[in-house]
Write a structure and sequence with these properties.
This protein is an alpha+beta fold. It folds into 2 domains: 2-42, no CATH class; 47-171, FAD/NAD(P)-binding domain (3-Layer(bba) Sandwich). Helix content is 26%, strand content 34%. The chain has helices spanning 47-58, 76-83, 97-104, 111-115, 131-138, 142-145; strands at residues 2-11, 14-22, 29-35, 38-42, 60-61, 65-70, 87-94, 120-124, 152-154, 164-166, 170-171. The strands form 4 sheets. A 4-stranded antiparallel sheet has the order 1-2-3-4, with no helix packed on it. Strands 6-7-8 form a 3-stranded parallel sheet. The chain has a two-stranded antiparallel sheet with strand order 5-11. Helix 1 packs parallel to helix 2 (76-83). The longest helix has 12 residues, at 47-58.
Length: 175
């Protein structure tokens, strides 16, 4: 097993590392984001990340969708959302600025796909969101699956403040 540390930072929330590992010399790379001794993300387990976008978008009718994803990580949820031709704009909210930087510097395999797409806006959370908002941001599929929630979007800022507006999208009935 071979490891390569792409970047390492001491941050206010702990030791943050971006690394790539290979199980064998001819094997596929596994990308990991670690915080202290825990794994925040690994490209070894991406099915759930992709399904978050696919399932939520499958339940929404409409065109020119302006959607929000909570958490950038390795970029798999954002990349899955951008594959949907109805997505006109995607805002990804991320707490850790280094993760955004890694995408913008194209240090990650999906960096060009996500940060290079004109429809995608990577937005850093300036302060920690409330615990309730953190739960919603961590589970984007919840927006489309819970009947008591209305789907709302964020308008791109035209000045220094963002304004919320209702989406023109309509939830599809569960199948």
């Amino acid at each position: 097993m071979m490891f390569e540390e792409i970047d390492y930072r001491n941050t206010p929330i702990g030791e943050l590392a971006l690394r790539r590992r290979r199980l064998s010399p001819e094997g596929k790379d596994i990308w990991e984001i670690k915080l202290n001794d825990g794994y925040l993300m690994s490209s070894k387990f991406i099915d759930g990340e992709i399904a978050l976008a696919d399932l939520a978008l499958a339940m929404i009718d409409g065109t020119a969708l302006d959607i929000v994803v909570g958490g950038l990580g390795l970029g798999y949820t954002a990349e899955a959302a951008l594959r949907d031709p109805r997505v006109a704009a995607l805002t990804v909210i991320e707490l850790i600025p280094e993760v955004i930087e890694w995408h913008e510097k194209r240090l990650l395999p999906l960096g060009e796909t996500v940060a290079g797409d004109a429809r995608c806006h990577l937005q850093r959370v300036i302060s920690s969101p409330s615990p309730a908002l953190s739960q919603v941001l961590a589970k984007p599929a919840v927006w489309a699956m819970m009947p008591s929630l209305s789907i709302s979007t964020i308008r791109r800022p035209t000045s220094s403040t963002a304004r919320a507006r209702p989406s023109t999208a309509r939830r599809r009935s569960p199948r």
